[in-house]
């Protein structure tokens, strides 16, 4: 398989989870402190530690073949770059916010207003597709402070819990896009490298599916099995194994981790006992 170069964020919100997903894919990386480049020991992968904001350009130029990057950065700077996997972490939205006292009724209220943002293309496109012109001020960080220091009437920035907006006396008024970390591919990737990319994607999908699921085991009297199976939102038909105690069985299945709490009471009412919920390390689909 051809060697591929992957860019991940050097430091910041994506760094740790990006390294973690590679590790969960069974890829060991020798990364010493302050190293900008590292080789994987057991997979044809070279890791480049870069600024998130610089990655679209490196992908475009083919300096790196693939990258783990925030989708919001691609929307801003790399619309033509292909996203091949959504990775389920660093979930956030890019939103417009105004001071709490602003009587906001709709996007038209921002006509001619000063908007501070690190995402000028995203804002520009959102506003102009709605026929609204505003006065954009590009700033690189601490955007939420802009209205308080008289620099802007509104802002556009990343929102996750909303606590930064809250602390700065702002309210979210338009969600322009939803974002998460993604695996993106350079348009210049070569044929010989696609096999390695597919092998990596296969591993990533197995890791993500496992993160989303739980292995659930429970015991039940045989006459309750049918009712219990009705409740279980399993992958396929659950496994039913006889217990040493006559007339009892053990039921095993895989369920989506978010669904589990929805059905737990129902399962107990239907007669399930000794319910165990276990993590799954990999799930090959
Ligand atoms: N509060 C947040 N909650 C969840 N995800 C976030 C949050 N803030 C940022 N992100 C996501 O993480 C990415 C990296 O954010 P971070 O603040 O670490 O880097 P940055 O300063 O934008 O980039 P650079 O690496 O270029 O310095 C963002 O592009 C976004 O996708
Ligand atoms: O809704 P919240 O949960 O408060 O998250 C949103 C904040 O998180 C990000 O900043 P970060 O902490 O990454 O700092 P930065 O501006 O230095 O990148 C983003 O720029 C917002 O300011
Ligand atoms: Mg940030």
From TrEMBL:
<comment type="similarity">
    <text>Belongs to the ATP phosphoribosyltransferase family. Long subfamily.</text>
</comment>
<dbReference type="Pfam" id="PF08029">
    <property type="entry name" value="HisG_C"/>
</dbReference>
<keyword id="KW-0028">Amino-acid biosynthesis</keyword>
<dbReference type="InterPro" id="IPR001348">
    <property type="entry name" value="ATP_PRibTrfase_HisG"/>
</dbReference>
<dbReference type="GO" id="GO:0005524">
    <property type="term" value="F:ATP binding"/>
</dbReference>
<keyword id="KW-0808">Transferase</keyword>
<keyword id="KW-0963">Cytoplasm</keyword>
<dbReference type="GO" id="GO:0005737">
    <property type="term" value="C:cytoplasm"/>
</dbReference>
<dbReference type="Pfam" id="PF01634">
    <property type="entry name" value="HisG"/>
</dbReference>
<dbReference type="InterPro" id="IPR020621">
    <property type="entry name" value="ATP-PRT_HisG_long"/>
</dbReference>
<dbReference type="InterPro" id="IPR013820">
    <property type="entry name" value="ATP_PRibTrfase_cat"/>
</dbReference>
<dbReference type="InterPro" id="IPR018198">
    <property type="entry name" value="ATP_PRibTrfase_CS"/>
</dbReference>
<feature type="domain" description="Histidine biosynthesis HisG C-terminal">
    <location>
        <begin position="210"/>
        <end position="282"/>
    </location>
</feature>
<comment type="pathway">
    <text>Amino-acid biosynthesis; L-histidine biosynthesis; L-histidine from 5-phospho-alpha-D-ribose 1-diphosphate: step 1/9.</text>
</comment>
<keyword id="KW-0479">Metal-binding</keyword>
<dbReference type="GO" id="GO:0000105">
    <property type="term" value="P:L-histidine biosynthetic process"/>
</dbReference>
<keyword id="KW-0067">ATP-binding</keyword>
<dbReference type="InterPro" id="IPR015867">
    <property type="entry name" value="N-reg_PII/ATP_PRibTrfase_C"/>
</dbReference>
<keyword id="KW-0547">Nucleotide-binding</keyword>
<feature type="domain" description="ATP phosphoribosyltransferase catalytic">
    <location>
        <begin position="51"/>
        <end position="205"/>
    </location>
</feature>
<keyword id="KW-0328">Glycosyltransferase</keyword>
<dbReference type="InterPro" id="IPR011322">
    <property type="entry name" value="N-reg_PII-like_a/b"/>
</dbReference>
<keyword id="KW-0460">Magnesium</keyword>
<keyword id="KW-0368">Histidine biosynthesis</keyword>
<comment type="function">
    <text>Catalyzes the condensation of ATP and 5-phosphoribose 1-diphosphate to form N'-(5'-phosphoribosyl)-ATP (PR-ATP). Has a crucial role in the pathway because the rate of histidine biosynthesis seems to be controlled primarily by regulation of HisG enzymatic activity.</text>
</comment>
<dbReference type="GO" id="GO:0000287">
    <property type="term" value="F:magnesium ion binding"/>
</dbReference>
<dbReference type="InterPro" id="IPR013115">
    <property type="entry name" value="HisG_C"/>
</dbReference>
<protein>
    <recommendedName>
        <fullName>ATP phosphoribosyltransferase</fullName>
        <ecNumber>2.4.2.17</ecNumber>
    </recommendedName>
</protein>
<dbReference type="GO" id="GO:0003879">
    <property type="term" value="F:ATP phosphoribosyltransferase activity"/>
</dbReference>
């Amino acid at each position: 398989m051809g060697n591929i170069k992957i860019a991940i964020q050097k430091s910041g919100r994506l760094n740790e989870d990006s390294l973690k997903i590679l590790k969960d894919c069974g890829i060991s990386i020798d990364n010493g402190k302050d190293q900008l480049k590292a080789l994987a020991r057991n997979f044809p992968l070279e890791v480049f530690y870069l600024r998130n904001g610089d990655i679209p350009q490196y992908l475009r130029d083919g300096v790196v073949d693939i990258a783990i990057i925030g989708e919001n950065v691609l929307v801003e700077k790399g619309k033509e770059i292909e996203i091949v996997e959504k990775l389920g972490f660093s979930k956030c939205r890019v939103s417009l916010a105004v001071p709490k006292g602003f009587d906001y009724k709709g996007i038209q209220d921002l006509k001619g207003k000063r908007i501070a943002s690190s995402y000028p293309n995203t804002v520009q496109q959102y506003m102009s597709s709605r026929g609204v012109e505003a006065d954009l001020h590009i700033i690189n960080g601490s955007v939420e402070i802009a209205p308080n220091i008289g620099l802007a009437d509104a802002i556009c920035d990343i929102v996750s819990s909303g606590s930064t907006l809250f602390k700065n006396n702002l309210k979210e008024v338009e969600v322009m896009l939803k974002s998460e970390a993604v695996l993106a591919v350079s348009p210049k990737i070569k044929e010989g490298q696609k096999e390695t990319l597919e092998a990596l994607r296969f591993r990533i999908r197995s890791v993500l599916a496992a993160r989303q699921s739980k292995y659930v085991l429970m015991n039940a009297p045989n006459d309750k099995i049918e009712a219990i199976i009705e409740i279980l939102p399993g992958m396929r038909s659950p496994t039913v194994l006889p217990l040493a105690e006559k007339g009892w069985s053990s039921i095993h299945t895989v369920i989506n981790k978010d669904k589990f709490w929805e059905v737990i009471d129902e399962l107990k009412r239907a007669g399930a006992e000794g319910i165990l919920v276990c993590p799954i390390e990999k799930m090959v689909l």
